[in-house]
């Protein structure tokens, strides 16, 4: 080999390793190491080298993630070790008998269980030989499935080559292919703009994407993977003692494993895991339909064995279904704070995931059109992350003949003002502004919000009455309310009226950012309000701000700036602000905790703290002048870690950043 060629070959090897490392950091650890542009540059360089040296290309080259010729059919793959199914448990009693069966079968007092999530995707088996991915197959009937290798190669979080020191000769990794909620939504939005078919949920989207004969299509679908099981293995002595150790080894091999897992040794421990995950289920970035418990020690798993095609050593503990079918009784519209018109389906009541649902949002006019939801239709409703139930799709073959298509009304149902839809906006709006009672109610609720003026006890039932009885028209009216007006409201006792008066009075002592946020100026969220307060220092300066000055504020662009100017140019709004200021509202400088100054320090919070929420910890830190950031970097001063801290903690350890627990944090804060 000439000198030039060998250095090119070296460069090629380097690029393969380096690109694999960058992909792993990006897709598995969720911690990008370089900007996308740098990755793209290295990847292009790899492609160029391969163009000149086609004989260098191997199946595990990162360039081979992109698909080749479409298949005619999927070939059948016989699983070397069958892919079992899981028995389900829905109730505590079934869990108790599972634990009893395991303990009795093993003749033990207690058994250790590995708990993990049950991802709602597709079970897949990945076969690695000599550390290289050579085949991927769907579960099929458990004995044989379909060869989806080309499609699986397109998934960036699945390594084409394993890393680490102890790579087995043959390893079949079992796990789930799924789609993150965010990726799913982005993909569906994109499909909509192209007029393509949208998927009903992430599971269908993942399944549909894997079933593509043309892997170029799969490559465009944002699929993810988590490993949770084992098929064939050689040599057998590579196997660690337990399932939890196996998953740790998987991580070392570069395979993605979910960090939401725990080892427990009692039914109470299982229940606790189920409950904790259940509580944050809707906040998880992907959908799960339950959790899975597995006897942790492989020796004990073998002793317990199988019944028909399901193991005795594992069970899925399912959450109640989050999707149900019901009928649409009516469709009407709600008016939001900024006049946005939201169509809402009134439903025949149905229990979804343990909660009775009678209304579901249809988001906006285009969504109703796209899903073609009509009064009388049978629809699928879902309770998802944001808790507001939504209509997912129509069961078309149950559509009655007289089903009525929906039209957005031309007049606001609340104030009769004209409803308008600007050309470049997705939503229609009531043009009534604060003349519209619905918008007024929402504006008042926003003003009273915990993160704005924080008026405890001013909920929607009370605001409804205050506005309907014309006792309150603007936020300024709140500060003129007397005891008797409040005490006369429905479902309001003397004591509650007293409490509400007190919280209204207390709200006068606030901060400038809270006040600005509370005004409900379109596009001015909490963080913009903070920036505006910092820049202008007082309310009158903001009221008279000019466009070019506004544009110098952090994160304020033309849309936000114009929205502020248009708000402040309404004499009505200026009057309300003046009245509020005259009613004795005072802006406290954001309080500092006496004696502690953490300004210039950056903290990252991760995991669950024993006694306080992350929001509380963040508030304490900010009050002491510290900055709280979302991700760990060289600039991080401290990481505060609770239980189940994941990759952020790992990163902190890697970078040698001090890690505090809640006790240490409180000491630092002088508490
Ligand atoms: O997350 C899952 N969907 C999941 C599925 C999981 N976390 N663990 C699983 N474990 C198994 C055994 C114990 C049989 C290896 C599974 C599945 N099986 C499974 N998925 C589809 C069929 C079986």
TrEMBL record:
CDD domains, per database record: BRCT_DNA_ligase_like, LIGANc
GTP-binding recorded as keyword: no
The reaction(s) this protein catalyses: NAD(+) + (deoxyribonucleotide)n-3'-hydroxyl + 5'-phospho-(deoxyribonucleotide)m = (deoxyribonucleotide)n+m + AMP + beta-nicotinamide D-nucleotide
Domain BRCT: 598-671
Presence of keyword Cytoplasm: no
Chain residues that bind Zn(2+): 412, 415, 436
Example GO biological process: DNA repair
PROSITE patterns (UniProt xref): BRCT, DNA_LIGASE_N1, DNA_LIGASE_N2
Residues involved in NAD(+) binding: 36-40, 85-86, 116, 139, 176, 294, 318
EC number per UniProt: 6.5.1.2
UniProt KW keywords: DNA damage, DNA repair, DNA replication, Ligase, Magnesium, Manganese, Metal-binding, NAD, Zinc
MF terms (GO), sorted A to Z: DNA binding; DNA ligase (NAD+) activity; metal ion binding
Gene3D superfamilies assigned: 5' to 3' exonuclease, C-terminal subdomain, 6.20.10.30, BRCT domain, DNA ligase/mRNA capping enzyme, Helix hairpin bin, Nucleic acid-binding proteins
A Pfam family of this chain: BRCT
Entry's Gene Ontology cellular component terms: cytosol
Active site: 118
Requisite cofactors: Mg(2+); Mn(2+)
InterPro entries registered for this protein in UniProt: BRCT_dom, BRCT_dom_sf, DisA/LigA_HHH, DNA_ligase, DNA_ligase_AS, DNA_ligase_CS, DNAligase_adenylation, DNAligase_N
Family (UniProt): Belongs to the NAD-dependent DNA ligase family. LigA subfamily.
Function statement: DNA ligase that catalyzes the formation of phosphodiester linkages between 5'-phosphoryl and 3'-hydroxyl groups in double-stranded DNA using NAD as a coenzyme and as the energy source for the reaction. It is essential for DNA replication and repair of damaged DNA.
Name of the protein: DNA ligase
Originating organism: Polynucleobacter sp. UK-FUSCHL-C3
Organismal lineage: Bacteria, Pseudomonadati, Pseudomonadota, Betaproteobacteria, Burkholderiales
